[in-house]
Amino acid sequence: EEKLTQLQMQLCDDVRSAIQRLAQGITTVIHQVAGDRKLNIPTHLAIVDNEAGIKAAKENDDLVQEIEDHVSKWNSHINMVIEAQQQNDTAAGKSPLSELEFWKEKYAILSAIYEQLNLPAVKTMLKVLKDGETSYPTFEVSYNTLSKLYNEAKDNDRLLSTLER
User: Fold this and answer.
1) What gap in Å lies between CA 52 and CA 126, rounded to an integer?
2) pLDDT higher than threshold 90 for residue 152
3) Cα separation of 67 and 75, whole Å?
4) Quick one: which of 21, 39, 133, 135 has the fewest CB in 10 Å?
């Protein structure tokens, strides 16, 4: 009878854990749909990604200003995400599953932003600003911090996912 009670408790814990994972997955989808993990990346900018195209874009002051405005907004968004992630630097529970879920969520948040910043269109826009008198150096610092947090979350997620199996 004691084994049966332990089995029931374990089953309840497993069900509770599965429900928490489901709730976390739903929360992730809601955040993605709501747009707090989505950067506003302009699609109307036609910049040819070669030396001549980048040079021509750098000579177009209106285009440079528009790119600068977008990069400034991205920088603010990145800094908000970084600050939120640094404030929430520990898992909610003490169980291994809560640690696993913590790193999964952190990885999902950071990878959503990181992957957008590595799109070819974004990289081309950044080439236009690079080496100019722009806010690019400020953005670069934020991007490097984001990359560090992203790589940490990715590594921990992979390691803990392996242990989960």
Assistant:
1) 15
2) yes
3) 12
4) 133
